[in-house]
TrEMBL record, chains A, D:
<feature type="binding site">
    <location>
        <begin position="61"/>
        <end position="63"/>
    </location>
    <ligand>
        <name>adenosylcob(III)alamin</name>
    </ligand>
</feature>
<protein>
    <recommendedName>
        <fullName>Glutamate mutase sigma subunit</fullName>
        <ecNumber>5.4.99.1</ecNumber>
    </recommendedName>
</protein>
<feature type="domain" description="B12-binding">
    <location>
        <begin position="3"/>
        <end position="141"/>
    </location>
</feature>
<comment type="function">
    <text>Catalyzes the carbon skeleton rearrangement of L-glutamate to L-threo-3-methylaspartate ((2S,3S)-3-methylaspartate).</text>
</comment>
<keyword id="KW-0170">Cobalt</keyword>
<dbReference type="GO" id="GO:0050097">
    <property type="term" value="F:methylaspartate mutase activity"/>
</dbReference>
<dbReference type="GO" id="GO:0019670">
    <property type="term" value="P:anaerobic L-glutamate catabolic process"/>
</dbReference>
<dbReference type="InterPro" id="IPR006158">
    <property type="entry name" value="Cobalamin-bd"/>
</dbReference>
<feature type="binding site">
    <location>
        <begin position="93"/>
        <end position="97"/>
    </location>
    <ligand>
        <name>adenosylcob(III)alamin</name>
    </ligand>
</feature>
UniProtKB/TrEMBL annotation, chains B, C:
<feature type="binding site">
    <location>
        <position position="171"/>
    </location>
    <ligand>
        <name>L-glutamate</name>
    </ligand>
</feature>
<feature type="binding site">
    <location>
        <position position="181"/>
    </location>
    <ligand>
        <name>L-glutamate</name>
    </ligand>
</feature>
<feature type="binding site">
    <location>
        <begin position="149"/>
        <end position="150"/>
    </location>
    <ligand>
        <name>L-glutamate</name>
    </ligand>
</feature>
<feature type="binding site">
    <location>
        <position position="177"/>
    </location>
    <ligand>
        <name>L-glutamate</name>
    </ligand>
</feature>
<dbReference type="Pfam" id="PF06368">
    <property type="entry name" value="Met_asp_mut_E"/>
</dbReference>
<feature type="binding site">
    <location>
        <position position="100"/>
    </location>
    <ligand>
        <name>L-glutamate</name>
    </ligand>
</feature>
<feature type="binding site">
    <location>
        <position position="333"/>
    </location>
    <ligand>
        <name>adenosylcob(III)alamin</name>
    </ligand>
</feature>
<feature type="binding site">
    <location>
        <position position="180"/>
    </location>
    <ligand>
        <name>adenosylcob(III)alamin</name>
    </ligand>
</feature>
<protein>
    <recommendedName>
        <fullName>Glutamate mutase epsilon subunit</fullName>
        <ecNumber>5.4.99.1</ecNumber>
    </recommendedName>
</protein>
């Protein structure tokens, strides 16, 4: 079976590389083909890499507190670039200061992210979620196809 | 222009300077002679270089937090709080990440949004946007020396502004503010940029104003073997000295094993002194230990345990300064209350340990000699690669992987080496990449890690490294496999 | 009856026992054989003696808090919280002060008032009032070994009740629970009472149940010179061994100077082992370090600094157990949340330091030899005074001031000696009173304090002692005169 | 001038001796004649010592948290014993647990204590207060005497 491609990177002016290297290792071990665009990556870098590799998901990390500003509009730009239904995950220290995580999560979900992770989440949680989400997406795709056949 | 470890000529410096001061509108307010006059009349107790020298003479360890927010008045409030409620000995101005990338336009947008939203949208103080007079406003509002702490590959304009603004210390260096902080900026460029920054400091020194310079010791802050960070610190120290820097603080990030940490600080101080002497520089040398820079526990009580242990290590090592973490570390940028708590627990520990030093033992002596020998293997090769020129040698050393920093984001870093802890928690080389260690050293490192692997009943592997990265956050120093 | 350091005869013990069990109504529920059967079936992980032995074999340091409230259900809630949220390795049952004075009637009144007022009116768990079945109820509710920690000169009934109740460790001793805890009870009496308590433990051992015993190391907890507390610990250890105690934990209260503290713990373990060997006792010996027992800072962040430093000292010394303070220490009895925080910061520090030991250095070796030499001066004289009988010798030693504990309330303590810190914070003898140290030792102590006096520009005096008592609460170890 | 006698002790089943010894030293240095009855002292011990020495004040310490119970009724017993207007001071960790000091102070003042001190108070504060209170008492005595003369 061909491996699923996913794009991994640290967004904005953020240069935290340690977690990025660990996520790369963990998702590769988890069975994914990781396209790691590294730190200091613009929204366009994520989108271009996803188009080039026909990726099923974009995993955005942000550790330095500017994540909220850096991630705004990413979903819309994906849509414009034709990346419909691509999974968007975000995780790390997404905002400046100690804020209630639930409200941070809500803000990111409103911005179009499918999954939002608190600081300190194990990579395993993300891997499990990604497998679930991809299976669901596939099922949905089959269902749509079946529906076409019938109709 | 060809890179060389040689004091910049007056002509080329001032020509470059003209251009640098146009990078952002606030550059035009920098007037060197006016700045020197201003700096000469600031009270002595606000001069960073003097305070560091006195601390070393008195044998005490000073405590300095990290802190910075978007707006001037809020930033002043924060620093005053850390001074009055935290009892900080030295104050920082942590600079935001847009400024670090010279993205002043985005910084300005975030300042505006911070004003509208009434909360800091930046992770630091955008000093270039705020300019010289706001730096002075901050200095006027506090009673302690000020330093800029950032991570800026091209800090030329920033350096001009902060010193003219009365801040008497600057953190950074051509290697330490590139490899851990940038992705695609060449080392040649950043070493050249930091020669400029060091030359600014040198000029002030020549005009009678003492300024402290601090290369950034911990690099990626994650399992960096002491000999690698010491090699970087010594190189940056020598490069700075060539440009006329006189008051220098070399740094090291706590790894967690007391013997190794104390050995690293002492090896750094001794070996740097030897190199300065060999190359004919007269330097006021001091040291700084950074409390644990890796992952923290989410629990505040546990974080206090990590913080206090860092403070104790700094005191027992005899470091001149300790950079303080906070009980909010795991959650990102701390509240000012949490920041002050970190300082208070640190100061309490430092005060209890005043005058106490780790006595030399066989273990400590051996570890110190090992670190020095490893560092020398690296530095010898750097000088060789540069045909005696340290700047050229440093660039070539990173090209060839002779120098290599674990977990660094830079494309100019080979990324071939891997570190891991031995059974006592000391950081060792698991993969040497192209680092030119002698066989004895390699065998010793390998043996220690083989002993750990044996105890844990697994192979030496990257999983061991990953376990070590997350270990402190989970409460231990060595990342042992979970018992199932 | 004449006091002698000799195992109590079966006849005299059981005769005494009959009377002891009538001291309070709950005494009638103690049935030795039934208790042995009960203790034999409690799970191994709830046995204090086994857990201490295993910790020593594994080279780790266990963390134990202090805690106790008036009512059983509230007490269980507290212990469960410290177990689950604090991560304690061992649990205490701190006993209230009325019980310590055998004032069970007043204890009962306070229990009743606590029920009415719905808050604990007692500073501990009134175990004699609650009796055997409530001890067992507490044990059933937790998953860790239990110990009684008190300060009871006559703990005979208490000892009977706690062990029958499944608590497998008892703190105390004829000297350490008299001199710092009583005013006008003769040492002869309390040594005799604690022979009884030790004999109870010995009986259980002979019947196949392991019970841990822990003489109270820190005494008055205030500037006690290590040789004096080590002398008490070794005497109480020998007296306990004679009554059949097999699993023994000797204690020491942190003084604050790392070298001295590590030297004290190691000297205690080594020297006690030598004495046990000399007198033919086979003992499972472990050690405990008490985190700083003197005044604490009111600020919680600063308190965490003090707590963590105590944890680090215990780990570096290689103590088997550390008794944990809380960030509420300055305010009196802590909330259970603060208590758990103290344990968590302690455990974090212990885990970071797992396997790390202070290596032997010249300083450490010298300090250890000094403590041993001082301790031997005291013990030699004690044996001499008792014509070879340690119990008699101890009584006479306190009568003559050969043994003398600073700041003790007892009328049976000479109160002639004074301690003070040297420039490094190590506790030295300022006034020797009648302690029979040799001239070399006296000169050395005098010299160190003279050096401090010189540095401070004042005479060696009681004011120096007062300054040292309050120093840690004010943030430093050595109480320097304020600069005016 | 004759020194003023004061009675010092630790009340109840409390055996904390360190502070007691320091207070003894400090108040002696401060110019008072200290009658120190030590630790583990009953209310009766304080009263008897005060009567015997014609003391002007009783200083009660309690460090172990039972102070509230131990101090109840002390003022009434002093009155019964004829110690009218004797100054009563209390200080230390007077109650179990971390409680608001103002409410503790109020409770002790209701019990008839003239001064109540929080944990960690310097002996100097107590010495200064005692001097003030004694001076006031003396003035009041003079005033009463003068008033007698006039009337």
């Amino acid at each position: 079976m061909m491996k699923t491609n996913i794009v991994l990177g640290v967004i904005g002016a953020d240069c935290h590389a340690v977690g990025n290297k660990v996520l790369d290792y963990a998702f590769t071990q988890g069975g994914f083909e990781v396209i790691n665009i590294g730190v200091l990556s613009a929204q366009e870098d994520f989108i271009n890499a996803a188009i080039e590799t026909n990726a099923a998901a974009i995993l955005v990390s942000s550790l330095y507190g500017h994540g909220e500003m850096d991630c705004r509009g990413l979903r819309e730009k994906c849509e414009e670039a034709g990346l419909k239904d691509i999974l968007l995950y975000a995780g790390g220290n997404l905002v400046v200061g100690k804020q209630d995580f639930d409200s941070v999560k809500e803000r990111f979900e409103k911005m179009g992210f499918d999954r939002v992770y608190a600081p300190g989440t194990s990579p395993d949680a993300g891997i499990a979620d990604l497998k679930t989400d991809l299976a669901e997406a596939e099922e949905m795709a089959h269902y749509k196809q079946d529906f076409k056949k019938v109709s | 222009m060809e890179l060389k470890n040689k004091k910049l000529s007056e002509e080329s410096f001032f020509q470059e300077r003209k251009e640098v001061l146009t990078h952002w509108v606030t550059g035009k307010d920098v007037d060197l002679q006016e700045a020197v006059d201003y700096l000469k009349q600031i009270p002595k107790h606000k001069n960073f270089a003097l305070k560091m020298r006195k601390a070393k003479a008195d044998g005490i360890t000073l405590a300095q937090p990290r802190a910075g927010v978007a707006l001037v008045d809020e930033h002043i409030k924060l620093l005053q709080y850390l001074q009055n409620e935290g009892g900080a000995d030295l104050l920082p101005n942590t600079i935001d990440s847009y400024t670090r990338q010279n993205r002043y336009q985005e910084g300005q947008a975030a300042i505006d949004e911070s004003m509208r939203e009434n909360r800091s949208m930046l992770n630091g103080f955008p000093v270039v946007n705020h300019g010289v007079h706001n730096c002075r406003k901050v200095l006027d509002a506090v009673e302690l020396p000020l330093q800029a702490r950032h991570g800026t590959p091209d800090a030329r304009l920033l350096t001009e502004i902060i010193h003219a603004g009365g801040w008497t210390s600057n953190e950074g260096g051509g290697i330490s503010y590139n490899i851990p902080y940038a992705k695609s900026i060449s080392l040649e460029k950043t070493i050249r940029h930091w020669q400029y920054c060091d030359r600014v400091t040198g000029l002030y020194e020549e005009m009678g104003v003492e300024i402290n310079r601090e290369p950034f010791g911990p690099l990626t802050g994650t399992l960096v073997p002491p000999s690698m960070s010491n090699a970087v610190a010594i190189i940056e120290g020598l490069l700075a000295a060539e440009q006329g820097v006189k008051n220098l603080t070399l740094g090291y990030g706590q790894c967690g094993n007391l013997t190794q940490d104390v050995a690293a600080i002492r090896a750094l101080e001794e070996q740097a002194t030897e190199y300065f002497k060999e190359y004919g520089y007269e330097i006021d040398l001091t040291t700084v230990l950074h409390q644990w820079m890796g992952g923290f526990p989410a629990d505040e009580a546990k974080s206090f345990g990590v913080i206090s242990w860092g403070a104790a290590t700094a005191a027992l090592a005899g470091a001149t300064k300790v950079i303080v973490k906070t009980p909010h570390e795991a959650m990102g940028i701390p509240t000012m209350e949490a920041n002050a708590q970190g300082i208070r627990s640190t100061k309490q520990t430092l005060n209890l340990l005043k005058g106490q030093r780790l006595s030399i033992s066989k273990d400590l002596g051996m570890e110190k000699e090992l670190i020095k020998a490893e560092t020398k293997c690296i530095l010898d090769k750097v000088f060789e690669l540069g045909n005696g020129d340290l700047a050229v040698g440093a660039v070539k050393a990173f090209e060839t992987g002779v120098m290599d920093i674990p977990f660094a984001p830079s494309n100019y870093n080979a990324g071939k080496i891997l570190p891991a802890r031995d059974n006592n928690g000391a950081v060792r080389y698991l993969e040497f990449g192209n680092i030119p260690m002698n066989k004895e050293i390699k065998d010793f490192n390998n043996q220690l890690l083989a002993e750990r692997a044996k105890l844990e009943g697994r192979e030496v592997s990257f999983q061991m490294v990953v376990d070590d990265i997350y270990a402190v956050g989970k409460g231990t120093l060595v990342g042992r496999p979970e018992i199932k």
